[in-house]
Amino acid sequence: MAHKRKGQLTKAVERGKHLRKFMKRFFWKQERSEEKKEIKRDMENHL
């Protein structure tokens, strides 16, 4: 079951066992990207 944990910006998707490596890599890539976007927004709001 897909769910979003506290402190995570993106939602984990349900994945088949054969896709786990790929989907984990994809999930964390999205998470890093969202983190960068959030930091940029925070910096713009503080200026």
Features:
single chain; 1 helix; mainly alpha; 47 residues; elongated
Topology:
Blueprint (H helix, E strand, L loop, with lengths): L19 H27 L1
Write a structural description:
With 47 residues, the protein is mainly alpha-helical. Helix content is 57%, strand content 0%. It is built from 1 helix and no strands. It has one helix at residues 20-46. The model has no long low-confidence stretch (mean pLDDT 81).
Radius of gyration computed on alpha carbons: 13 Å
Largest sheet: none
- Helix tally equals 1
Strand content: under 5%
Q: Report how far apart the termini are.
A: 40 Å
- Tell me the helix content: 55-70%
- Number of separate strands: 0
Low-confidence stretches: none
**What is the mean pLDDT?**
81
Shape: elongated
Write the H/E string, N to C. H
Q: Return the structural class.
A: mainly alpha
Condensed summary:
57% of the residues lie in helices and 0% in strands. The chain has one helix at 20-46.
